[in-house]
Amino acid sequence: MFYGVVSQCAQSLKNLETCLEKAELHAAAKKFDVNVLMMSRLAPDQHHFIYQVQSACDYVKAAAAWLSGQAPPKHEDSEQTIGEVRERIKKTIAFVDGVEEAQYADASDRKITLSWAPGKVIRGVDYLLQVTVPNTYFHITTAYSILRHNGVDVGKFDYLGTMNFVDR
Amino acid sequence: MFYGVVSQCAQSLKNLETCLEKAELHAAAKKFDVNVLMMSRLAPDQHHFIYQVQSACDYVKAAAAWLSGQAPPKHEDSEQTIGEVRERIKKTIAFVDGVEEAQYADASDRKITLSWAPGKVIRGVDYLLQVTVPNTYFHITTAYSILRHNGVDVGKFDYLGTMNFVDR
Q1: Residue B71 phi/psi, 5° resolution?
Q2: Which among B129, B131, B144 has the least Cβ separation from residue A5?
Q3: Are B97 and B17 in contact (CB under 8 A)?
């Protein structure tokens, strides 16, 4: 389960590539700098697009690391352009892809510590379902919504990406 | 896994209750009808708040049903008020809570048919990870974002709800 869920979170992150391409097309058509979209928000006191992607990346990276018994690699939050956002997604996926299914063998009972819950731990299975999944999809969807709200022609199938349908 | 993931999706839906309460407080403080928020959107060609909740409910209900070998109960999309939205969430959760863990025993290999993919099927495990989870969190997050964008004082911990942290 752990491998499957984390891999799908990584795939959903990768699906943002299509949204980034559409953001570039929209900015070019409207003749504005695409990096304006990278700094856009849904509310003045909510984080901007780049932060949403950084955060989604970090939840997926952290899950692949902690659930396989490793400390996550440090990725600095220094992105300022759409090109840097793409690189952040790529290095996150490269890390997650490097963790093999067997490395999640003990994931369920691992005790995970989170910086925002000092003195507490959460079991691997609860971490996956209550922290990784809701946070990853929260930040990916918020990134998507920032583009959607600003007129980029993204649709839910861009967000969903490829699904393993087979002929009946 | 199936029981755990579907139960967490239902819990995340239930967490919207806090957002609904905050929507009511905000509308009362600003002296407008809270049902204005129920009809609000992030983009003119995206669906409104009530649709987002209906859709999240339907993905969770359908997962509990199809993955346990049942046809989902029909819930009409007739909600127009915040009270009706609450009822929709409640009846969805009541249905999901009625499905016991053992009923998901054959979930992984079930072949699921979706109305928007005629002639195709998707295996239970792919349906859960590629359809249920991304769609459920997409619509819950979008509902949350509609309130956030309109000034309601919701925060990510309202969305996340209770997590099973224990003392270290």
Answers
A1: -80, 140
A2: B129
A3: no
Beta-carbon contacts of residue B136 (< 8 Å; ≥ 6 apart): B9, B12, B13, B56, B59, B60, B63
The H or E element containing residue A166 is strand A165-167
**Residues of chain B with C-beta less than 8 angstroms from the C-beta of A159:** 134, 138
CA distance A147 to A137: 15
Find the farthest-apart pair of alpha carbons in chain A and give their distance in angstroms, rounded. 52
DSSP bridge pairs for B120: A167
Q: Is A156 exposed, middle or buried (0-12, 13-18, 19+ CB in 10 A)?
A: middle
Cα separation, A90 vs B58, whole angstroms? 33
User: Hey, what are A97's tokens?
Assistant: 């892809």
Q: Tell me the per-residue pLDDT of A34-90, one tens digit each, with 9 for 90 and over.
A: 999 999 999 999 999 999 999 999 999 999 999 999 999 999 999 999 999 999 999
